[in-house]
Write a structure and sequence with these properties.
Helix 2 packs across helix 11. The two termini are about 35 Å apart. This protein is an alpha/beta fold and about 425 residues long. It has two domains: about 280 residues, FAD/NAD(P)-binding domain; about 140 residues, 3-Layer(bba) Sandwich (FAD/NAD(P)-binding domain), CATH 3.50.50.60. The longest helix has 19 residues.
Length: about 425
């Protein structure tokens, strides 16, 4: 590794610790054919970022159409604070207007129902079609309700919420917690990894526990984890539960959920006895968003999308790039909002390069910082840097970069709030 490369990686690692958002794959500004058009499916951390940066890095010469059904972006990161009563939905909601006004992204409020790779077009639920030269698919995750027979009906899903897509279910779960009597039990079922946001369920347990500690001190949080241990920041979360929420949070690993009895508020496991609770919060197993699965892009067990990590092009379809939580991740690469933002920049740079006849960057670097609130003000984080490995043809963690919080702190709480504001601006402003 040459000195320049070392300097880049050191800078990347330092940037992660501070929550900076730049990816080490950004090209210089470059021209592009005026006729080129990129369609982006999904306006989340991956899709919105890709749409913006393709416009910016092409000097606004590449036309970008963003297909997103929602009127506004609602952030999953920070949404657990809404469940704890420490934030409102307005605090995690950002308009898409900046993409249109500031960058000329054409936004279509609709849902893609079909991808025709031969004709290079997508079909919308409203019946219209849109052609593309390059397609970016960033649909997030969908929930595998079929694995839990008791949750297959719409009625059951309205009773037993996941709230893993920030929005109406976040509000509904908060109302369930508010309605729960003091002395009740909130049960959170976590699926086997991989799933969206590895530390997210454990942060949620902390936020609900903080609410109970303040408002319903006789109530309990029961964490029923299909994994053998806490999947991220385990020692830190366990220390917080012992110190801050002793007698409130109970953690039970190795609990693989097999079914749910919504009417009787009962969880049924592979080996353990059933559990009843006042409020059931079930995170079903997850897979790539439906449009990716339906289009044959989910080549890893029909669940996740395999990609060429140099440019995030699908292994199943030429000129189709997949980002974010839908992909089969590289080693130790988390499914997180920050990582989706980073992948989007690598992808955007590659797409602009390909459409302008320039070489794709052959040494991209991505980074991730994941903050978790453990009280209203105290936060812990994990950070990592991932560099392209030409021999293995994937990203590998950069040893010695990133790191883990030594302990919760209010200083990290300030950093977490700044991170949220910065990444939302990076995506949407």
């Amino acid at each position: 590794m040459d000195n320049t490369r070392r300097q880049i990686l050191r800078a990347a690692g330092a940037g992660v610790a501070l929550g900076t958002l730049g990816a080490c794959a950004a090209p210089g500004r470059m021209g592009a054919p005026a006729s080129a058009q990129v369609v982006v499916i999904g306006g989340g951390y991956g899709g919105a970022t890709a749409a913006k940066y393709i416009r910016m890095w092409s000097d606004n010469k590449i036309s970008v159409v963003l297909v997103e059904p929602n009127a506004e972006f609602v952030s999953c990161p920070i949404s657990n604070l809404v469940l704890g009563g420490f934030r409102q939905m307005a605090d995690i909601t950002v308009p898409y207007d900046g993409l249109e006004k500031n960058h000329g992204v054409r936004r279509v409020r609709d849902t893609v129902t079909k991808i025709d790779t031969a004709a290079r077009k997508v079909t919308l639920a409203g019946g219209a079609t849109i052609g593309y030269d390059k397609l970016v698919v960033s649909p997030g995750i969908d929930l595998m309700y079929d694995s839990l027979p008791g949750l297959r009906s719409a009625a059951a899903q309205e009773q037993v919420l996941h709230a893993w897509k920030a929005g109406p279910q976040t509000v509904a779960l908060r109302r369930q917690l508010e309605a729960m009597p003091d002395g009740g039990v909130y049960a959170l079922a976590i699926p086997k990894a991989p799933y969206r946001c590895p530390p997210g369920p454990y942060e949620r347990a902390c936020m609900v526990a903080a609410y109970f500690k303040r408002e319903k001190p006789r109530s309990k949080v029961l964490v029923l984890d299909a994994n053998d241990d806490v999947t991220s920041k385990g020692k830190l979360f366990k220390a917080v539960w012992a110190d801050q929420y002793k007698g409130i949070v109970e953690y039970r690993p190795g609990h693989t959920l097999m079914d749910v009895d919504a009417a009787n508020k009962e969880l049924r496991f592979e080996f353990q006895d059933p559990v009843k609770a006042s409020v059931l919060n079930v995170l079903p197993p997850m897979r790539a968003g439906s449009i990716a699965v339906q289009s044959g892009l989910a080549t890893a067990n029909g669940r996740w999308c395999e990609v060429n990590f140099l440019d995030f092009e699908s292994v199943a379809a030429t000129d189709v790039h997949v980002l974010g939580d839908s992909i089969q991740p590289a080693p130790q690469m988390p499914k997180s909002g920050h990582m989706a933002n980073q992948q989007a920049k690598v992808c955007a740079a590659a797409i602009v390069a390909k459409l302008t006849g320039r070489p794709v960057d052959d040494s991209p670097v991505t980074m991730n910082t994941c903050y978790s609130f453990v009280t209203e003000t105290q936060v812990i984080h994990v950070a990592s840097v991932h560099a392209w490995n030409a021999e293995k043809k994937t990203y590998m963690p950069v040893q010695g970069a990133g790191g883990l919080s030594p302990a919760p702190s209010e200083a990290e709480g300030l950093a977490a709030n700044a991170w949220a504001r910065n990444i939302w601006a990076d995506m949407l402003a």
